[in-house]
Every structure is written in structure tokens, then in C-alpha cells.
Amino acid sequence: MDFFSQLANYSFPMAVAAFLLVRIEGKLDELNKSLTELTRVIAGKDLS
Predict the structure, then answer these.
(1) In which band, very low, low, confident or very high, does the pLDDT at 1 lie, cut at 50, 70 and 90?
(2) Stated pTM of the model
């Protein structure tokens, strides 16, 4: 019984963490693209 209890206590948080990491990965890629584009726009303008 103790094995199944420990399995239930640790597998659920690990599954939630994995799910969130997979979901956030796409958003981080989009954020990276946006920051790269912003850097190009700022570098292309004369700031004086």
C-alpha cells in the first residue's frame, strides 16, 4: 500500500509540471521571436 501512496503523491505533481512545461514552451518560442524582431527594429532606427 505504501508504494501506491507514494506513487500517487509524486506522479501527479510530475505530470502537472510536464504538462505546463510543454504548454509554456510554445509561448517562450513566440516571446523569443518577438524579442528578436524588437531588437532588429530598435537597431534599425537612429536613436539621436
Answers:
(1) low
(2) 0.55
